[in-house]
């Protein structure tokens, strides 16, 4: 086999390796682009959190009750008179 190796064979292998290298670099660039985008999202979130805490303050105190105290809601349940009627009786009418 080694006796039949020609410079054209070596050139072919070099070309294949260069193509594989290009494909790998392309994938690598795409992955880096995705990671950079994710990093930017985290940075944006961090800036938003900082702006929010500056604007509204960061306290550990419970929120003060509002003057508009929530009124008590009275819920009354009314059961339909036909609730106990089997479905087949309602359908056969």
Largest sheet properties = none
Q: Count every beta strand, where a strand is a DSSP E run of 2 or more residues.
A: 0
Low-pLDDT segments, ≥5 res:
none
- What is the overall number of helices? 2
Mean pLDDT score, rounded?
A: 83
Beta-strand fraction estimate? under 5%
Which class do the helix and strand fractions yield? mainly alpha
Tell me the distance between the termini.
Answer: 92 Å
Described by its quaternary structure, the protein is: single chain
Rg, please?
36 Å
The helix/strand series, from N terminus to C terminus, equals HH
Helix content: 55-70%
The coarse overall form would be elongated
Characterization of the model:
With 93 residues, the protein is mostly helical. Helix content is 59%, strand content 0%. It is built from two helices and no strands. It is elongated, with a radius of gyration of 36 Å.
């Amino acid at each position: 086999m080694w006796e039949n190796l020609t410079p054209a064979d070596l050139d072919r292998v070099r070309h294949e390796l260069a193509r594989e290298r290009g494909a790998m670099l392309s994938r690598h660039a795409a992955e880096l682009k995705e990671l950079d985008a994710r990093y930017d999202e985290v940075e944006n979130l961090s800036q938003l959190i900082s702006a929010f805490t500056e604007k509204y303050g960061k306290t550990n105190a419970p929120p003060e009750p509002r003057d508009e105290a929530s009124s008590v809601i009275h819920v009354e349940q009314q059961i339909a008179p036909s609730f106990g009627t089997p479905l087949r009786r309602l359908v056969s009418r």
